[in-house]
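User: Hey, quick favor. My workstation is busy. Could you predict this chain's structure for me?
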Amino acid sequence: MRFSTVAIASAVVAIASAQAVNPLYPFQANGPCVDGCLTKVGKSMFDKFTNDPSSPDFMASLAFAHERDTPAYKTYMTQTGMCIMNCPMTEQDLYNAQYKDKAAWYANKKAGGTGTSANATSPTATTGAGKPAGTTPSSAVANSASALVGVVAILSTIALL
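Assistant: No problem, here it is.
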């Protein structure tokens, strides 16, 4: 009985630590699946992409998800949306619930509010070699009608936020 109590207490502490809010970026962590999707797609478009708020490339990385009038935004959101729809619903819900506030935080920091970095610019997608990346998803994904429907649903939800 004592072992199970210790195991439960350890699990509670681990979950609380994992969900601790970073004072530099005051939002709950996305969860491992969603974070993996954001990072994988981000790094495919910008080799210095990061989710680390203390990095000088953090604001430039956030631009992919929050600079709506760019081709890179559309590509990033489409590709991450297709990946995220395979994540646990709790992680998807958390990402969607925080998206609007994260966009407002990003806009405030970009406009000169205090933050971790002021180097945000409209994103230009690059490959890992620093060359411009394409702005279309892979043909395998593009040919999947069900994936496209899921992406449209996620993007519609985000647009409404």
